[in-house]
Amino acid sequence: MKVAFIGLGNMGGPMVRNLLKAGHDVAVHDLDAHAVSEAVKAGAAPALSPKVAVQGVDVVMTMLPAAQHVRTVLAADNGVFEGIARGITIIDSSTIDPASAKAFAGLAAERGVTFVDAPVSGGTGGAAAGTLTFMVGASAESYAHVKPVLSAMGKNIVHCGETGTGQVAKICNNLILGITMAGVAEAMSLGERLGIDPAVLAGIVNTSTGRCWSSEAYNPFPGLVDAAPSSRGYTGGFGTDLMLKDLGLASDAAKLARQPVFLGALAQQLYQAMSANGDGKLDFSAVIKLYRKD
Amino acid sequence: MKVAFIGLGNMGGPMVRNLLKAGHDVAVHDLDAHAVSEAVKAGAAPALSPKVAVQGVDVVMTMLPAAQHVRTVLAADNGVFEGIARGITIIDSSTIDPASAKAFAGLAAERGVTFVDAPVSGGTGGAAAGTLTFMVGASAESYAHVKPVLSAMGKNIVHCGETGTGQVAKICNNLILGITMAGVAEAMSLGERLGIDPAVLAGIVNTSTGRCWSSEAYNPFPGLVDAAPSSRGYTGGFGTDLMLKDLGLASDAAKLARQPVFLGALAQQLYQAMSANGDGKLDFSAVIKLYRKD
Amino acid sequence: MKVAFIGLGNMGGPMVRNLLKAGHDVAVHDLDAHAVSEAVKAGAAPALSPKVAVQGVDVVMTMLPAAQHVRTVLAADNGVFEGIARGITIIDSSTIDPASAKAFAGLAAERGVTFVDAPVSGGTGGAAAGTLTFMVGASAESYAHVKPVLSAMGKNIVHCGETGTGQVAKICNNLILGITMAGVAEAMSLGERLGIDPAVLAGIVNTSTGRCWSSEAYNPFPGLVDAAPSSRGYTGGFGTDLMLKDLGLASDAAKLARQPVFLGALAQQLYQAMSANGDGKLDFSAVIKLYRKD
Amino acid sequence: MKVAFIGLGNMGGPMVRNLLKAGHDVAVHDLDAHAVSEAVKAGAAPALSPKVAVQGVDVVMTMLPAAQHVRTVLAADNGVFEGIARGITIIDSSTIDPASAKAFAGLAAERGVTFVDAPVSGGTGGAAAGTLTFMVGASAESYAHVKPVLSAMGKNIVHCGETGTGQVAKICNNLILGITMAGVAEAMSLGERLGIDPAVLAGIVNTSTGRCWSSEAYNPFPGLVDAAPSSRGYTGGFGTDLMLKDLGLASDAAKLARQPVFLGALAQQLYQAMSANGDGKLDFSAVIKLYRKD
């Protein structure tokens, strides 16, 4: 297949390499010339604008920081909409708010183009290994169409429902994640203060009703899980500022829907306090630093 | 072994039956004559007071609603301390605050008696089936001593550390549980409002970083997990007022330790709002009713 | 002076009447023809577009629901920027985020135009009576320039600092307001539940360290303050959805600034819960309904 | 009148001096010999136990740290109940939970004694100046009886209702205080971050709907109110650990009453975080340190 890929950051770069490995023909565009030249070395064809990149392709992928960038790439001068043919599908793997995803789908439809939201989980490690999870918001037909392309980059390609539901799945999962991580940090710190060995406490929680990904795979207490950022000074992993972005999308979507998110809003403030303390680049599990001294 | 068991409620009753089945000799006491007569039918010997019950036994067990009841049973007139011999061990399986557990251990030590805290998880189902988890706070020696007795009533007998740490483990686990359940309720309700199929959302969460016992085994959204209270009108299970008791113990212990529990304190208020709404007897997963109309 | 006024809603309508009463010459524009004809009856001149309205005026005023409307009125086709002369000042009395206010000032400056933010407090009553408070973000020179115009509509014209600080003052004040009102609701409900006469409690609070505008002038407990919405079924006053808008602006500004607003974020969720319950149109003091049955 | 006064701490000491100045005959008791000798120098008669102190007096006053101390002073060996005559009134000015106050009243009634709760506001300054506010929970008859005694020590003697309502008034007022102070800290810090002059912001808030005792008389932002602890490094004033005690009483009373206190519980955690940071002895307005760097 001929694929245009726009957005060659920490995620987009390795995703393109996996598309190329799978035998796809990939035209790439990014504002960062270095990122483009890396992709070209891997076999991609450079394009000077989104408009140029999308000409003659079967499918377009975008992987961008926020909704405003997606809007620009699609609708600004020399954007995707100026070059794309009717009937083609755009797959946006950026994490953005569901309302914007629906709005972009509407703009695309006016041009006879299909827009599919397909945010990912799995991080840069999953992008490199080709083991991402894609949460796809699309009609059944569009889902069937995009699945083979996405399979080159991911292991789980989940159909979430109509357009926008991919984003809904992503932000709802990360809403739980942001809450449970802070909750585990709170309980591990309390336990330590009350005199229980943190390793013993984690062992009990992980075989009991408190067990969760944040306690088992990614425990924020230092030294309990070798592979977790907490065992290497909270470096790498999923940055606090990225968690803040996702909780912000969740609380914004909740505001629009007039739906309370009590714990999510409070968790957001906790990560915001971390960011205010200068820890925004640390892995989000460093939220435990709000509760205990090192 | 000869065991005295004081407190024959929903938990204590079936625990005594499992002790008897395992061949132990059990003397029982409770203020409720009916509960005593049920235990007697199962083979226990009735005692008119804790003082009488503990005479000549090898080990004493207590299973009571709150610390004040434990204090009365131990130290009031005709209480355990009046009848117990030096060298005997008291196992308290009530869920109480760690500070009280330590205080009771101190009072016991003054009498040459050992006090072990061993709160349980597993609920009335686990009590009946003999599959409880016991979280034991005791010296290594005392742990070795009580383990065979507890094995008659439970499947996992976990040594948490010194006296009081059994209670610490229990309240820290349930602190996480109270937070994650409300967090899952929040995210499931938000997802529903934003248009994703709740079953699809739960499926994604359960294979992703949001997964937790509250989403997998006990999802609060009705109809997703057959065995969960959410699929039977939030009846049975773990009552909201019991969760409130445990979160109260956690926030009280945190207050004493000058340790913040931001999310725990907020979760406590959410369950309190449920209780104020008259839903205190429902399973705690009914917290989702604060977020969505049925 | 010759004034263009764009936005003739519940606030803008009466503000125009006060400008006319003060002898100003006013050209008006609104998408709602009825609102325009009411202003025309009062003596204003109708204009078919912002572009037309601003031609030849000394000052331009805008009073619109949100930043997106201000952007459209200023920068869209037939907008203010197409018709305004260099050197003229735009006064925006909409409540919007400080960052947008600064961005609009930047766009205006590119055209040799001054943009001043001047959000108001005092509600529709103050707009009708000409007793609004204007919180003005402007250079000292611009403040001196706009003060006489604003004085026709308001009693207190406060200079808050440079552009954007008018909005900062507004959202910070309303952040406190949203928190204190919910706090007073919480304490009044707790007091009632614990058996104190609410009137006695309010009397004590109002002469003690708990006193605040929300307890004195606007107590949410029904029947204590005759003039307050709580004494007329929470009708009139400051709608919950408007409070939600302002708390949303505050928490968004805090998010951008990486500044935690723990209580503000939680208060926002409380009002959001009210709105979810269908009470978004009630006065915001109806937040007490989350705490007590009528 | 002949008064017994038990509890000669930072508050009780100066209160006794004012009783003596007003011509009362005062017998005092405290575990701290130095505090007793200071009172004796001022003219009081020392007593070796509460039992001895209360013999032959017209009224008994207690001013103690917490409910457990009141219980001991009243009901332990050599306590008040052993020495007090039928018909005498005990005035307890300690700040304790309303349920304990009612329980003590019940114990007193069994002995033909009247128990009145009369917690104070005004701090050590008010105690020294004799300008305390007493919040009195008592029957109308008892209130009339104790008012003249209290007038020697305070300026406002407020009748709150039946026994226990004095404590209810105190904790409800301080619940609002704890919330508004943190809310003002939050908004002042946000405003500073967003570029408004804190003095200007405080001026606007204090003439608008955000005004409250915490912004006007006791603004937590340093340098705005000369007489406030924020202008002297948060020393003196009302200690964070005392605020924590009162918020703890409020949240405990709310828990018993099954009444949610969302903001109060969160505010409590904020002060707890301060205390965990080692700032428990600072004035409670130092909560602003959680939001901004000095």
From TrEMBL, chains A, B, C, D:
Reactions performed catalytically: 3-hydroxy-2-methylpropanoate + NAD(+) = 2-methyl-3-oxopropanoate + NADH + H(+)
Domain 6-phosphogluconate dehydrogenase NADP-binding: 2-161
Origin organism lineage: Bacteria, Pseudomonadati, Pseudomonadota, Betaproteobacteria, Burkholderiales
GO biological process, one term: L-valine catabolic process
NCBIfam families according to UniProt: HIBADH
GO MF annotations in UniProt: 3-hydroxyisobutyrate dehydrogenase activity; NAD binding; NADP binding
Pathway note: Amino-acid degradation; L-valine degradation
PROSITE patterns per record: 3_HYDROXYISOBUT_DH
Protein name, UniProt field: 3-hydroxyisobutyrate dehydrogenase
Family: Belongs to the HIBADH-related family.
Domain 3-hydroxyisobutyrate dehydrogenase-like NAD-binding: 164-291
Encoding gene, per UniProt annotation: mmsB
Database matches in InterPro entries: 3-OH-isobutyrate_DH-rel_CS, 6-PGluconate_DH-like_C_sf, 6PGD_dom2, 6PGDH_NADP-bd, HIBADH, HIBADH-like_NADP-bd, HIBADH-related, NAD(P)-bd_dom_sf
UniProt keyword annotations, A-Z: Branched-chain amino acid catabolism, NAD, Oxidoreductase
Taxonomic superkingdom: Bacteria
Protein's organism: Pararobbsia silviterrae
Entry's EC annotation: 1.1.1.31
Active-site residues, record numbering mapped to chain: K170
